[in-house]
Amino acid sequence: MSLMNAARKILLALAVPVLLVAGWWLATAGSASFFWPPLGQILTAFADTWFSARFVTDVLPSLGRLLAGYLGAVVLGVALGTAIGSSRTLRGLLEPVLEFFRAIPSPVLVPILMLFAGIGDGMKILVIVSGCVWPVLLNTVEGVRALDEVLGDTARSYRMRRHSRLIHLVLPGAGPQIAAGARQALSIGIILMVISEMFAASNGLGFTIIQFQRSFAIPQMWSGIILLGLVGIVLSMAFRAVEARLLRWYTGLRTAQREG
């Protein structure tokens, strides 16, 4: 029975992508448009473009910057969110400032960050951090605030140290909302990775796609866009695997509640 359910889930997950690819193939099969080439031509360009040295020179540096910026944003967002969510005074003091900076779009900060961090990898990583930190931070604050006060009082009555309460109560209790923020931040990070590489860059996926567009290498440009989508799918699957492992207790609790 479990095999049947697994097969059904796989078929449902693949149904829409297969239909979209088939529709794209049929719609462009006889295309003579320069800007809308046949999908077969794009796939040929994909293999020639990315299954080469370009994977090392452009794809891997982009993924490295994305990983560094994303992990930095998660660590910073969880640390600040835990502190702000745990202190009513700190929350009241910083909330107006946080709302101000949250309203500033991260791409607008690129010229400013270039002045202070230069045009190297540091600037690109800071752009990713500046956008990814907000969903993690805000979800962490709400997760910490939503913790059961009875559990907190019980921990204090047993004289649990602050470090122990943080590790065994606060972070696990806020874990589901932290994971929700981290999931949102991942998609934002991919977008900012591309945007940051469009400014004063010499490599990366964003830089390469723009170069293809400017040189009218349209099939190669489309192949880069497809590669970005595939990167997003792989990273999403990796995130789900990590999330399922870290939040096993929460998943089991929700399953027990549904069955009960």
From TrEMBL:
Superkingdom of source: Bacteria
KW DNA-binding (keyword) present: no
Localization (cell): Cell membrane
Coiled coil (residue ranges): none
Transmembrane segments: 67-85, 97-119, 188-210, 222-242
Classification via Gene3D superfamilies: MetI-like
A single cellular component GO annotation: plasma membrane
Bilayer topology: Multi-pass membrane protein
Keywords for this protein: Cell membrane, Membrane, Transmembrane, Transmembrane helix, Transport
Single Gene Ontology BP annotation: transmembrane transport
Domain ABC transmembrane type-1: from-to ranges: 59-243
PANTHER family reported in the protein's UniProt record: ABC TRANSPORTER PERMEASE PROTEIN MJ0413-RELATED, ALKANE SULFONATE ABC TRANSPORTER-RELATED, MEMBRANE SUBUNIT
Entry's family note: Belongs to the binding-protein-dependent transport system permease family.
Name the UniProt record assigns to this protein: ABC-type nitrate/sulfonate/bicarbonate transport system, permease component
Organism: Nonomuraea wenchangensis
